[in-house]
Design a protein that fits this description.
The chain is of the alpha/beta class and 438 residues long. Helices cover 50% and strands 7% of the residues. It has 4 domains: 132 residues, 3-Layer(aba) Sandwich (Rossmann fold); 74 residues, Helicase, Ruva Protein, domain 3; 90 residues, Up-down Bundle (Zinc Finger, Delta Prime, domain 3), CATH 1.20.272.10; 82 residues, post-AAA+ oligomerization domain-like (Orthogonal Bundle), CATH 1.10.3710.10.
Length: 438
């Protein structure tokens, strides 16, 4: 029976995808996630000391969540039970709890329950885990691509540690593929295939930080190549077609595209902005990087001409993190077209830079005494807060008094434009300070 099982396992391994065969078994083989499990990091130490707390691994697909859970079980010599929240139910959890009691009693082993896509468990299913996680009968490792602070019950969150995994860098993906090409036991080493950095970099860009996808794409390319041959860009083009982009996230093309993207939004051309957004998305650009650029443009180039642009941009930043690709393209497109179509003003941006310049390079004087904090005993004796006029006690909720330090009296940093909503701000300021806003 043992011989039959071994033969069956060996036969099955022939059909396992490359990504499954190349799963790291130790930290020496694990690539990336230095912030989470690098040498000297908290989680790494707890795993090596066999003092692992329950935790939730949160990150994009293909970043090592399942692999890390399996490695933890192996390193700590624990009983490893895996469930997928899509198909598992409360009965499956209770069965594992009963088995965990036997493992602890007879084999002195703790049980790690790994729940993939834990965000798909409903509240009652998550609640079932609480007593077992709290009393240590189970060590829970949950994995999710969704923000656990939105998708996991607070009661369960309070009992686990959140570990965020990041999308793998292109250099990480290239290293993983080189390991697969050279590994004769589990990888493609016996086929003696060669691949240039250009080819591996192209596959890495197509993969978008997903290690599983990188190995899947490499395996597809290898299937079309002869043993001992070199994987070429022409071969990749024949397999992946239009997915193979010339967009280089580290080269001139990257900076040129990003520059054109920002300048198109600033120049109020939503069609051009959407075009460059599509180039970046098709080329595998980090969606969080794109969202940050949109938010910066909303603040710097739209400003108070339409303050709602920043609200839309920040909503896109959150949505991108929440939904991920491919759906993230939709809130990004919404924000990009809104920012590009909004009236423009950089007055607030120019104002803060001018003020910072003065603060850093001039003696700007002291805060006027009537504006200083007066909410403590003895402040009045120091003259603080005396003669301050509370604006809401006056008509139109405005009263003229000195706000700037005496050394800066009369200076104007903010120059509202006549664009959009900012025109109304300018008119109001002219009525308040006609000597400054003429």
């Amino acid at each position: 029976m043992d011989l039959f099982a071994a033969a069956e396992q060996s036969d099955n391994s022939k059909y396992e995808p490359l990504a499954q065969r190349m799963r790291p078994r130790t930290f020496d083989e694990f690539v990336g996630q230095e912030d989470a499990v690098g040498k000297g990091k908290y989680l790494r130490k707890m795993i090596e000391k066999d003092q692992l707390p329950s935790l939730i691994l949160y990150g994009p697909p293909g970043t090592g969540k399942t692999t890390l859970a399996q490695m933890i079980a192996t390193i700590t010599d624990s009983c490893f039970k895996k469930l997928n929240a899509v198909s598992a139910g409360i009965g499956d959890i209770r069965k594992i709890v009963d088995e965990a009691a036997e493992q602890r009693r007879f084999y002195q082993k703790k049980t790690i329950i790994f729940i993939d896509e834990i965000h798909r468990f409903n509240k009652s299913q998550q609640d079932v885990l609480l007593p077992y996680v709290e009393d240590g009968r189970l060590v829970l490792i949950g994995a999710t691509t969704e923000n656990p602070f939105f998708e996991v019950n607070h009661a369960l969150l309070s009992r686990v540690r959140i570990v965020r995994l990041s999308a793998l860098s292109d250099s990480d993906l290239m290293h993983i593929m080189r390991l697969a090409l050279s590994d004769s036991e589990r990888g493609l080493g016996k086929r003696k295939l060669q691949a240039t950095n250009q080819v591996l970099d192209a596959i890495a860009q197509l993969s978008g930080g997903d290690g599983r996808m990188a190995l899947n794409l490499l395996e597809q390319a290898a299937a079309m190549a002869e043993d001992g041959s070199e994987l070429s860009m022409e071969l990749l083009g024949s397999i992946f077609g239009e997915r193979l982009q010339s967009y280089d996230k580290k080269g001139d093309n990257h900076y040129d595209t990003v520059s054109a993207f920002i300048k198109s939004m600033r120049g109020s051309d939503p069609d051009a902005a959407i075009h460059y957004l599509a180039r970046m998305l098709a080329g595998g650009e980090d969606i969080n990087f794109i969202a940050r650029r949109v938010a910066i443009c909303a603040a710097e180039d739209v400003g108070n001409a339409d303050p709602f642009a920043l609200v839309v941009a920040m909503a896109a930043v959150q949505a991108v993190q929440f939904v991920g690709m491919p759906e993230a393209r939709i809130p990004l497109a919404e924000a990009v077209t809104y920012v590009a179509s909004a009236p423009k003003s950089n007055a607030a941006y120019m104002a803060i830079d001018a003020a910072l310049g003065d603060v850093r390079h001039r003696d700007c004087g002291s805060v006027p005494e009537h504006l200083r904090d007066s909410h403590y005993k003895g402040a009045a004796k120091l003259g603080h807060g005396i003669d301050y006029k509370y604006a809401h006690n006056y008509p139109h909720h405005f009263v003229r008094q000195q706000y700037l330090p005496t050394a800066m009296k009369g200076i104007t940093y903010y120059h509202p434009t006549s664009n959009g909503r900012e025109a109304r701000l300018g008119e109001y300021l002219k009525s308040c300070w006609p000597e400054r806003y003429k």
